[in-house]
Structures
1.
Amino acid sequence: MTGNPSEPVGNFTIDDDVRNEEVGKPQVLVDKRETAYAVRRKQSLRARYIFGFIFFTTNLLAWFFRDYGYKILHGLRHIAVCGEKGDECFHAGGVLRVSLGCFIFFSVMFASTFGARKLHEVRDCWHSRCWILKFLLFLVSIVISFIIPKTFIQLYGEVARIGAGIFLLLQLISMLQFLAWCNSQWMPDPQSGRCLIFSGFFGLFLSTISYIASFSGIVLMYIMYAPHLSCIINIFSITWTAILVIIMMIVSLHSKVNNGLLSSGIMGLYIVFLCWSAIESEPQNEKCKTPKKMAENGDWTTIVCFLIALCAIVMATFSTGIDTRSFQFVKDEAQLEDDIPYRYEIFHFVFSMGAMYFAMLFISWELDHPTRKWSIDVGWASTWVKIINEWLAASIYLWKLISPVIMRDNAIHHEESMQNVHSLV
């Protein structure tokens, strides 16, 4: 007996079964694709920490070549590019060569991942996986940096100063974006309709803590680093920092700006930290700075401070690198399931600039300046770099506060002028 295709079988028809199979197959494919994208997204996010570990390892390698490479790595002294005594591969020269190797590695990663947008691209696979090949690439980059002539290394050292300055600027942009995020989260606009009780109270609490910490830090710096009137540089730096904190607070509270106290309080705390860091970078001086006992190989407090400073470098680079949305000219509002979670080229660019930055910190921004063991970023050059960075940070923040007011006033003035012209006509 021949059955009709539409003949009922149980509660379903044969046509219904076929239709269900056709609908079910795409659904399975969709589920598999979503699972694959989720796995690749996790691999991409995990890759950030592996790159951060590589960067941290490079910092340790640079420190090793600066402080102990001359005593341990005797074989490098016979390489022609290292000079007669091998000095060009140790101390400041060793730091610059390791930094160059790190810069080459992340520059190659920048070029090879440029334009990656989707998780199914080959560039995503290269960024998130293939770690054996990338490890070999890192080793080759370090080896290349130790066979390059001295002249090129000196040129790289000059360029690294510019790259380190770019990194500080990127870090400042990331900081300003963080302040904007804090304001939007904890100092919401009353017209937004959000619950203002908890968020407003928490924002006020953070603002109060930030200002108390800022002014307490200023008083402590006067006590510790300006004990005599002869400490002119320290007195000027601390006083100007206090003035900047007050100016930022007044501008934030101005009726035309009305930005609240939270972002200005956190920014004030940040520039106070930069001022303290600048004074700490000054060479040891009996009059204006309490001299610290430093054994030849470093005592335990010196070693702990060094390790904390090293971790701070890595964390600053990592936090700036993962904040890729702050450096995009076009903000992508819609995030599709197959989009990469962050911009790979920006991430690697930040780390390549970070390679130049840590080189400058290890050699105190001076190419031929001898550095003390277990020390980072000590010297007058380092001090003035941090002071200028503080002033630049405060200036950009103030401009960000007042620029909308100026543009709005100019627009109103232009509109009034056009109305007057039309009325005369």
2.
Amino acid sequence: MPLQTKPTVVFDLDGTLADTSADLIAAANACFRGLGHGDLLDPVADALTAFHGGRAMLKLGFARLGQLDEAMIAAQYPVLLKAYADGIDTHTRLYPGATDAVEALRSAGYATAICTNKPEGLAETLVTRLGIRGLFGSLIGADTLPTRKPDPAPYLAAVEQAGGIVSRSLIVGDTETDRLTARAVGVPCILVGFGPEGPGVARLNPEALLDHYADLPGLVARLIG
């Protein structure tokens, strides 16, 4: 099919393609240890907070100390990013079947892209180390453009740079941010039921829920042809 009319599947990264929570929590805990507080976050119990970003993790930890201070969060955020970059793939793993599903979509003629609220440089490093960068025609991060999801601009850029067409595209994600992005653009949304919120994402009323990556090609075909 012509390059500029390829149907396109746009993926979120954290909590959708890969479980990055343990490495994110470890980076936040490195900040707290450096301040003499020890590990304040739990890699399992606080996994959902991890997927809301570095500042959210810092806010939670300082709140537990009764020291919620925006200036302190701002000061520790660069420390967190460095700690995360140093151990970005220590515990992170792709969800089962993710690679096979993306390869199947590409073989069927779909363009594939990543649109994430992780900083672009960190996202590029992670997907390269996970061995999947070549499976995606574009990668748009939190700082690639002046705005981030759920603003529609990053999604639109991801589709365009992948050689796709927005009117035949959809997003695969795991959080309300991805659902709101889909609504802002006017495209279908598939939310994974194995991410940080589990089956609870059904409350967001996506066009489809994904329980296993093996089911993704069929869902995509049904939603955008």
3.
Amino acid sequence: MTGVALGVDIGGSTTRALAVDSAGDVVGRGVAGGGNPNTNGPAAAAAQLLAAANTALSGSQAESCVIGMAGSSALLDPAVAAEFDVVFELLRPRVVSDAEVAFASGTSSAFGTVLISGTGSIASRIAGRERVATYGGFGWLLGDEGSAFWIGREAVRVTLYALQSGKPLGPLPQAVLTSAGLPIDGDPRIPFGRLIRQVNREEPIRLARFAPLASSVDDPVAHGIVERAAQSLAAQALAVHEGGPVVLAGAVMQTAVGARVRDLLVGQEVVDAKDGTVGAAWLASLDAFGPDALRPSL
């Protein structure tokens, strides 16, 4: 059997694995369902992680394995760790944060900052390819400013205020109501009440689905939300930044918000994170094959 390095990028809905050889060539891939125990439950998450890893390895031996996961501290819980015993016995992984994986996917530098804005938001300073300081990342209830959740909530809030005002609705409130499947014409009290009830019946994080509207609708109110999100995200990055590149990761960074963040970080070296499995596989390669290991290319 050929020894390979295995990188695994765990998400709430998808787990992806990448196996690479000592030359940095991709020799196997695996995809499975969500492998994060925080969102999927420990037993189901461990099964999905193992499925993705086994598919990527396809009979090869993992010389090293790096797993990148948001909320990786969950594995310190004995009840959670017990469900992952088989995974740890087979792969002997080094578990790191999603921030470290994202940073390694975007740059070969060992020092810098990574700013992530997806459903949530967080900034981390990286030194020696390890996270050494963090700003934000408190979750939807306590923070995550500039995240898809935060942007989506703001879009719904301005829609409710617009309905309360009785004035003609602007493009963003109209887009929010259309996205929610609610009537626009007639008595504004009807969509007002229905929107509140719909949002409160769902998981709070579902507000993130409205976020793309703020970046795609030509509306001064939407532009204001984009600006406030970008200002907050740039401030998070600068709060921990002490030099080196700033790596931007997460779906929000591919929208108008991300473009504005780049404007606000003028003077910094700003790069985009690539596929998280690339970062995880490269970190595993460094462990297995030494400091000259090549970053995989997809």
4.
Amino acid sequence: MAHPCLSCGACCAFFRIAFHWSETDPFLGGTVPADLTEQLDPHRVVMRGTQSKQPRCVALKGTIGEAAYCGIHPIKPSVCREVEPSWEFGRHSLQCDKGRIAHGLRPLTPEDWLDPSGDNAPPLPQSA
């Protein structure tokens, strides 16, 4: 089963991605490439592209709603790691839904997390 986020990318092209500048400073343990950010205020930076009228994070690769992914996924900002896809962990995500709806995509449902092959079904009880 493909992860629904790999055919989405809507949250990366809807929200301003702002976070503390220290996440770009390797000396302080930061991992986000500083050249992918812009200064927002004395304490925060934003991912380039997310301050525009039609935001799109500079790290987003691919086509929204078809095939999209974060080009810096393993080192993405903390605010990105905090966004949960709706129903991946058994709960609704307003952020996910807002981004998807803004791009003409339907909100995710619990059924989007079921493996159509049936591999995620619980094992059948063994007969004695």
